[in-house]
Amino acid sequence: MEELPVVDLESVTRELAESGRRVKVLWQKPDSLAFVARGREYRSEFHVNDSDEFTYMIKGTMHLHYRTPEGEEKVCVIPEGSTNWMPGNTPHSPRFPPDAFALITERGRREGEVDRFQWYCPKCDELLHEESAVVDDYTKDFVTQAYKNFFGNEAHRTCKKCGNVMPKPEGF
């Protein structure tokens, strides 16, 4: 049996803040994944994955945008020191500033499971683009790669319904 992990969350948040990195994976096992995320001010996509998720806001406040089964966008506000549970396959977009930190736990991905990253038109709410990936190793940071693919292609950011072009955030 492995040693049982004990994680000093204050040290992890300090490490992320000082290094500029966005995610620190604490453990990654077949039935359990835990990581600390630092906010991404540019986050706009909705992530869809099969696992339930548990979020604890270590520092700051998260505005967790999510889409109902009917496609309506709603926002769940998670203040510092609070938790949230979200069922699997809920399109969600965790939005919080770079000086805020969240602990997220979920089930490890099962073989063949596909994560999806969806962007919607800010003008008419039409689906703009979807990226998908088999997330076999969370340390590979598929979110960053999905963003590069989306923002690096103007056709992905152009709404086929209303013609609106989603602007690139700074840094892309």
TrEMBL record:
The keyword rRNA processing does not apply. Gene3D superfamilies: Jelly Rolls. Pfam families: 3-HAO. Transmembrane segments: none annotated. It comes from the Bacteria. GO terms for cellular component: cytoplasm. Keywords: Dioxygenase, Iron, Metal-binding, Oxidoreductase, Pyridine nucleotide biosynthesis. One of its GO terms (molecular function) is iron ion binding. InterPro entries: 3hydroanth_dOase, RmlC-like_jellyroll, RmlC_Cupin_sf. Its cofactor is Fe(2+). The keyword Oxidoreductase applies. One of its GO terms (biological process) is quinolinate metabolic process. PANTHER family: 3-HYDROXYANTHRANILATE 3,4-DIOXYGENASE. Catalyzes the oxidative ring opening of 3-hydroxyanthranilate to 2-amino-3-carboxymuconate semialdehyde, which spontaneously cyclizes to quinolinate. This is 3-hydroxybutyryl-CoA dehydratase. It comes from Enterovirga aerilata. The lineage of its organism: Bacteria, Pseudomonadati, Pseudomonadota, Alphaproteobacteria, Hyphomicrobiales.
